[in-house]
Every structure is written in C-alpha cells, then in structure tokens.
Amino acid sequence: MQRQRLRILYSGHVQGVGFRYTVRGVAQGFEVVGLVRNLTDGRVELIAEGDPGELEAFRQAIRESGLEPHIRHEEVHREPARGGLSGFVIGR
Questions:
Q1: Residue 23: how many CB atoms within 10 A of its CB?
Q2: Which helix (DSSP H) or strand (DSSP E) does residue 85 occupy?
Q3: Which of 32, 60, 72, 75 could join 9 via S-S bond, C-beta 3.0 to 4.6 A?
C-alpha cells in the first residue's frame, strides 16, 4: 500500500494546553514521521506521513489521548506522501 500524507488543521482550544507535546508523545507509538505546530490563527497543524492504516490509528489515538475535549473541528486532507520528513517534531 502506498504511503500517504495526512494534514489536519485542528481548531478549538488547542493552543496553550500541551496539544503539540501530547501529539508528539502519541506519535512515538506509531510508525509515522511528521510535525505538529501552532498557527498564528489559533489552530494547530499536524502533518504526518506513513501507511494509511497507521495514520488513521494515529489520528484516533490523538483524540483518545485526552485532547478530544479541546478539539472543536478537524479539517482533514490526504494526499500521496512527499517525503522529506524525518522523525516527529514540534515545529514553529
């Protein structure tokens, strides 16, 4: 199966609550690479690449990590993997 890129824009009360650090911790349990960063408009952007099934499990694990009450909306985009990502980091 082809690797995929998942880009999610989270809105709600997602900044200032440890969102990015929690997502990075969750990522360590999955075979994904990517980044998570705050946006100036108050949203958080997640970019991750991996097997589509692994990405979907990762997405669900983020919600189950205790972050769900902070998420009002997820804008989800999927596309073929582009590469160029290494590890899982908190971006700026």
A1: 25
A2: none
A3: 75
> Is 91 within the bounds of a domain?
no
Is residue 90, in this structure, part of any structural domain at all?
A: no
What residues have CB less than 8 Å from 50, skipping those under 6 apart?
Answer: 3, 4, 6, 30, 31, 32, 33, 58, 81
**What are the residue numbers of the active site?**
20, 38
- For 22-67, give the DSSP string: HHHHHHTTSS-EEEEEE-TTS-EEEEEEE-HHHHHHHHHHHIIIII
- pLDDT at site 62: 97
CATH number for position 37: 3.30.70.100
**pTM over 0.85, yes/no:** yes
Domain count of the chain?
Answer: 1
For 44, the token pair is: 């958080």
Is residue 14 included in any domain, yes or no? yes
